[in-house]
Amino acid sequence: MMNKMSVIGMGYIGLPTAILIANPKNKIICIDNDEEKIQKLSQGNIYLKEQMIKNQFKKKKSFLSFFNDIQLSDTYIICVPTPVKKISNSFYKEDLSILNSVLKTLKKKIKKDDLVIIESTCPPGTAAKFYNKVKKKINFHLAVCTERAMPGSTIQEMVFNNRIIGASSKEAFKRAENIYKKFTKGKIYQMSLEEAELIKLFENAYRDTNIALSNEMDTICKKFKVNSKNVIKMANLHPRVNIHNPGIGVGGHCIPVDPWFLIEKKTKNHSMIYNARTINLKKENEVYKDLLKILDKRKKILFFGTTYKENTDDLRNSSSLKIIKRLFKKIPSAYIFDPINITHNNIDKKDIKNQRFDFLIIFVKHSWLLNNHIKSNKKIILY
Questions:
Q1: Whole-number mean pLDDT of the chain?
Q2: Which residues, in sequence order, are CB contacts of 55 under 8 Å at separation 6+?
Q3: Is 30 annotated as catalytic?
Q4: Which sequence spans correspond to the domains of the chain?
Q5: 170 CB contacts (<8 Å, ≥6 apart)?
Q6: Does the annotation mark 145 as catalytic?
Q7: Fewer C-beta neighbours within 10 Å, C or N terminus of the chain?
Q8: Class assignment of domain 5-201?
C-alpha cells in the first residue's frame, strides 16, 4: 500500500521539497491555502524563477496533486512561514499564527502511527509542546527537520546540505530519515526535537552577530576615514579570525528573523543576540542618513537593486528596498531599477541604457551589471 504524503505550504521551501520527494511510487499531495497559487500550479504554471526548480517541476508534475485544504494522509511535511511581527522599533516577536493554524487542523486529522515533520523554523519547545498534547490521545510520530536552503540554489542546497532530524522516538527518526535519504546526498544526523529547533536558530544568530560586528567595525572605520573592507580583509589573514563583510543591513527569510525566536523581552538588554539584531537594524538607518546627506533631489538619481541579495528575485526583509522606499519619500523624482525583480521599477531597461544619471546608487551588485553599462557622473557602490 502506498504511503500518502502531504506537503503543507507551497512556498520557497514547500514546493521544491514536494518536487524532490515525488516519484511514480510516491505521489505527493501539495497543499496551500492560496487558491490562486494552487490553481496555477495545477495548470503547470510555476511562480518560482529558479531554472532548476522549473525543470524538476516539469518532470515531476504528474506525480503531484494540488489542494487548498489539508487532505487525509499518513505523512505530513509542514513548510509554512513563521515570520516575526513588529512590537516596537526595537523589538520583534515570532508570529506562529500560520503554523498554529496548521497544527490545529492536524490535531483533528492525525491517525495512529502517522508521521508529522516540521520543516518550518520554530522557537525551541514548539514541537514538543504539540507532541505532548496530541500523543495523550493518539500515538503518532513527530520529527523536526528545519529547512536550510539559499534562494538561487534551492535544489542544490536541499540535495547536498546535511540534514538534522529531531525526533520524538527512534521510529520517528527512522521514518523521517527514509524520506530524506531518497534525495539527500549530505549526512543525516539524529537529535532531540529541541536540539533540532535550536541548531537552526543558533546558526542564524551566529551569522547575524558576526555581521553586526562587521557593521559596527565599519562605523568605527568611517570615523577614521578608512575603508572597512580593507581592514577586515587584513584582519582575516589571522588564522583564527573570520569576520563577515559589512553591509547595509541584513535581509532574507532567515538571518533577520530567526534570532528573535531566542530573545526574551524581559532579558533583551543583557542579550548579545539582541544587541546584534539592533545594530543591524540601525545600520539601515545609518546608510539612509548618509545617502540623504550627499544626494541632491534636483539631480537625476537611479537606485539600482531592490532584492535582499545579489542575483535573486527575493525581496523578503530586503534592507535595500526598505532604504530605497524611505529615500523615495524624500526624493520622489528618483528612478528605481532592478533587472531581476521588476516589482518596484519605475523605469525600464531600454530607458536606462539611453540615459545618463547624475547619481547611480548600487544597493545590490547583480551580475547583470557585468554585461550592462549604466552611464553616470557619480557611481556609489554600497558595500
A1: 96
A2: none
A3: no
A4: 5-201, 230-381
A5: none
A6: no
A7: N
A8: alpha beta
Question: pLDDT for 117-131, tens place per residue?
Answer: 999 999 999 999 999
Q: Report whether pLDDT(302) > 80.
A: yes
CATH fold of the domain at 230-381: Rossmann fold (3.40.50)
Phi-psi label, residue 340: left if phi above 0, alpha if psi -120 to 50, beta otherwise:
alpha
What is the length of the chain?
Answer: 383
pLDDT higher than 60, residue 1: no
d(CA 41, CA 353): 36
Report the candidate in 228, 208, 225, 223 with the shortest Cα–Cα distance to residue 319.
208
- Report pLDDT digits (tens) over 143-169: 999 998 988 899 999 999 999 999 999
Q: Which is it for strands 141-144 and 163-167: parallel, antiparallel or unpaired? A: antiparallel
Cβ-count burial of 143 within 10 angstroms (0-12 exposed, 13-18 middle, 19+ buried)?
buried
Nearest C-alpha neighbor of 7 from the set 43, 49, 41, 55: 41
Cα–Cα distance measured from residue 32 to residue 45, given in angstroms and rounded to the nearest whole number = 15
Against a cut of 0.85, is the pTM above it?
yes
Looking at 145, 254, 309, 322, which residue is catalytic?
A: 254
How many Cβ atoms sit within 10 Å of the Cβ of residue 224? 8
